[in-house]
Amino acid sequence: MTSTPDMQSFEPFANLQTVDPNLFVRPDQEPNTDQTVSSALEATSDPLQTAQGVYITVHGHFYQPPRENPYLDAIERQPSAAPFHDWNERIHHECYRPNAFARVVNDREEVMGIINNYEYLSFNMGATLLNWLERHDVETYQRILEADRKSCQRLHGHGNAIAQVYNHIILPLANDRDKLTQIRWGKADFHSRFGRDPEGMWLAETAVDYPTLAALVQEGIKFIILAPSQAQRCRPLPTSDHPHHDWQEVGGNQIDPTRPYRCFLDGEMRSQYIDIFFYDGPISRDMGFDDSALSNSQHFASRLGQAVRGDHRPSQIIAVATDGETFGHHKGGTEKCLAYAFAHEFTNRGWTVTNFAHYLSLSQPTWEVELKPVTAWSCSHGVGRWQEDCGCGGEGSLWHQQWRRPLRDALDWLRDQLIKVYEDAGSKLFRDPWLARDEYIQVVRDRSAANVDRFFARHQTRKLANGDRVDALRLLEMQRHTLLMYTSCGWFFEELSRPEGVQILRYAARALELASEVTGNSLEKGFVRRLGHAPSNIDCFKHGAEVYRQLVTPAQISMEQVAAHYAISSLFATHSREQRIYCYIAHQLDYQLQRMGSLTLAIGQLQLVSEITQESVNLVFAVLHLGGWDFHCCIHPFSGRRNYTQTKDKLFEALKQASAAQVILGMNQIFGNQSYNLQSLFDEERHRIMHLLTQGTLTRLDQLYTQVYRDNYGVLMAFHRDELPVPQELQVAAEVALSHRVLVSVRALEQESSDPTAEDASQLGLSHLAELEAIATEAKHLHAHLNVPEARQILERVIVRSLWNLLHQFNPDTLQAEIHRLDRLIKLGQQIHLNVSLAAAQELYLQQFQRWIVPQCQQKLNAMQQELTVPGKPTTTLKLVHLRMLLELGQKLAIDLAGWLEQLS
C-alpha cells in the first residue's frame, strides 16, 4: 500500500461522511467538472445502471450465536475472552467496530482516511448479534444501518444487507412450521432495523434442501447464496432459438460462479423459482485459511483477478463469501486491506463494487440449476454434522461425535411435546397460536407495555386477565427458547459438554420450566432420560444427562435468587425505589438497615416483575453481613403487613444483642433453612463486591510496597547502575509502587481535565501530567514494568476530551499550548508502554477536518488569503500558522497530511 489512491476515479466515496473525498486527493488536483456527456450515454456506459464488465461482491457472514443467560437475558462474564467481558465484546473490538471505521493507510501506517466497510461489503448480520450491538455500541450499530441506506442510494435501491434465518438453525432439519417461523422472524427483525424488506437471505451453514427453497419462495425471498459444491447440474435457460439444452453435471464443484442461476421448484410448470449465487469456492477458502490472500490489498485483488473469465460475456460477477469475523478477528488488521481494496485496488482495475441484489437487477439469470438433495457448505455428508457421527468437526481428534444423534432426538422429542402444550394451552388464549408465535418477534424487538398491549389486542381470544397474560407470554417464551435450542453451533464441534452444547441445553431447560409453570406438569425427567443416550467424551460427564445435571441445572435461576442478589448488593449500593436487575424490575416497597459493631442487617419488602413474562412476586428478605466474606440471606413470600412488621421487630431486637448467632437463629425460625450467600450473587455483582471487600487490603499493600520502595530506592539504583540482578522483592515493590502512583495521577488528570469550570483548556492537568512524566522516567531507569490497564483507558479518554475541546472551542491564542499538551499526552502513553489507541482521536479529528479545516485550507490556497474566520466563530481569526499547527496535530495522530502541509508551506 505505497501509493495514494486517486479517489476521483472512485465514485462510491462521494457518499462518505466520516472523511471527505478530498482527503484522498492531492490538494493541487482540480475536481472533475466535465458535464458534456449526455445523460442517455451516461446511463449506457454506467456499470451501475447497465451490466458491463467485471463486478466484485465480497460477502461477510457476520454472526454470533445467542450467549445470553436464558433467565437474565444478558451475557455473563466469559473468562476465556479476557481482557474483555465476553466473546461478543472481544470480537466487536477486533472486527465489527474496526470495519465500521476502517482505516485506509499508506506504507507508513498513517491514516489517509476512514471508511465504513459495510457500505461496500455485501453482508448479513444475525439478529442475535445485532441485538447485542444495539445494546452495547449504538454508534457502530447506526453505522451499519447507515451503510445499508447509502448502498441503497448508490446501487439504485438495492442495499448491501440481506437477512438471515433468525437464530442460525439448520433449516433442512427443522419441521415445516419452524422453517417458516425462522424465515419470518429473520425478515421481521431485518425490516425493523433496516426499514425495508430483504431481497436475499443467508441460510445457516448454507444448509438447504428443496422444502427449504419452497419456504423461502413462499416468504418472498428472491435469492440465496450457496457454496459451489451444493450444485448438481445446470444448463442455459430455454430461448426461442434454443428451446432445449442438455444438462451439464457440475457436482464436483465445477459450476461457473460468475453468473446467477435460477432454480425452479415446480418441475415443468416453472412458475416458482428462486435465484442462486454460488460464491467462488477456492478464493473464499483462501480468504479464511490462507494467510497470504488478505495479507494486503494487492494480493487480494490479484487473487480475485484470477477468477475473471476471458470470454466475451458482457458482464460477470466475482463473488466471494467468508465469515465476517475474518476481517479483523480471525486475521488481525485485514479490515484495512479490505478498505484499501475498495478505495483503490478494485476501481484501479476497472471493476465495479456491487452486491447480489443490484447485480441481479442488471443481469437476470440466463442459466438454471438443480441442487443436490440436502447439503451444507461445512459438511461433506449433507447435514450429517448436525445429527450424526459423520466425522466433520473432529479435526483429526480421537473424540467421537456419537452424542449428536441422541441429542437431536431428545430435542425433537421435547419440541413435539411442547407443540402439544402450546396448542392445548395456547388455543384458549390466542385466536391462532401459530400466527401469534410468528408475530411474537415484534414483542421480542420491543417489550414496552404499549407494544405488548397492541400484540394482545391483535391475538387474544378475549380480554385476558393478568394471570392469563402471564401464561400467554410464558407459552410464547417457551416457543422462543424451543427455537433457540436448535442453534447450529451446539452440534458443530467435537463434544457435547463444550459451551455451545451446554448453551442449547440451557435453552431447553428454560423451555421445560416455562411449560411446567403453565401446565403444572414436568417433562424434564423424560428429556433427561433421553439425554442419557448421548455419550460424552469426558469421563466426569459420561453422557448428556450428567452434562445437564452438572452444568445446566445449577445455572437455573429463581425469582428468590434475584431477590437475594438485590438484598446482598443493597449493602454496598443505594438502590432507587425502582431498580432494574437484568430483565427484572425491582420495586422497593420497604427497606431498613441497621449496624451493630461488625454486623450489618438489612430487611426489606420487594416486588419483582419480569420484563419478559410480566410475572411478579412480592417477597420479604433479610440479609446479615457478618464482616468480610460472610453473608446470610433469607427470602420468603410476603404474607401481610403484620407478619412483616413482626419479622423486622424480632430480627432488629436480636441484632441489639450484637450476637450473629441470635440473628441467624431468628432468621432461620422465620424464613426456614434455605439461605443465600455471596456465591448466590450473579457473577457481575459478586465480582464487584469482591473488589470492594478487598479494596482495604489492597490499599494497605500499596502503602506497604510504597514504603519498601522509598526505603530502598538508593539500593535499587545501585543494583541497576552496576548492572546486577535486582532482588525480586525490591523490583516487585518498585513496580507496584510506581503502578499505584500512575493510577492515582492519571485519575486526578482525568478529573481535572473534565472540570467544566476551567477557563484555560491548555493548562488543564499540567501538574498531574508532569508527575506522570516523572514516573515514566523513573520507571525507565529502574526497568520497571507497569501493569495499569485502567490507566490506558483513562488516558485515551483524556486525549479525546482534550482534542474535542481544541477543535470545538477553538482559541487561536491557546492553540499552541493545547497542541503541546496533547503531544505530551500521546508521548506519555508511549513512555509508560500503555499501548494507547488513537482510534477515537483520529475519528474525531477527521470529522472536523472535513467540516472546517479542509475548507479553510482550500480558501487559503485558492484566494491566497492571509487571514480566515472559523465557522461558527466569525470573530475568531484563523491565520496560516494556525492551519499549519492544526495539520501538524493531525500528523501527531498518525494521519497522513503531508500533501496539505507541503502546499501550505
Overall SS class: alpha/beta
**Rg over CA atoms:** 32 Å
Helical fraction = 40-55%
Low-confidence stretches: 1-41
How many E-type strands? Answer: 23
CATH architecture of the domain at 7-24 and 51-67 and 86-238 and 246-374: Alpha-Beta Barrel
Count of DSSP H/I helices: 31
Mean pLDDT: 90
* Main β-sheet description: 6 strands, parallel
End-to-end separation in angstroms reads: 26 Å
Stated plainly, the CATH topology of the domain at 7-24 and 51-67 and 86-238 and 246-374 is called: 7-stranded beta/alpha barrel
Classify the oligomer.
single chain
The first-level CATH class name of the domain at 7-24 and 51-67 and 86-238 and 246-374: Alpha Beta
- Tell the overall outline: globular
Strand content: 5-15%
Explain briefly what this protein structure is.
With 905 residues, the chain is α/β, with parallel strands linked by helices. Helices cover 47% and strands 14% of the residues.
Can you describe what's shown?
- The protein has 31 helices and 23 strands.
- The two termini are 26 Å apart.
- Strand 22 (867-870) and strand 23 (873-879) form a beta hairpin.
- It is of the alpha/beta class and 905 residues long.
- Among the domains are: 7-24 and 51-67 and 86-238 and 246-374, 7-stranded beta/alpha barrel, CATH 3.20.110; 389-555, no CATH class; 559-681, no CATH class.
- Helix 11 (404-426) packs antiparallel against helix 15 and helix 11 runs antiparallel to helix 18 (524-531).
- The strands form six sheets. Strands 1, 4, 5, 6, 13 and 14 form a six-stranded parallel beta sheet that branches. A six-stranded mixed beta sheet has the order 8-12-11-15-9-10, covered by helices on one side. It has a five-stranded antiparallel beta sheet with strand order 17-18-19-20-21, sandwiched between helices.
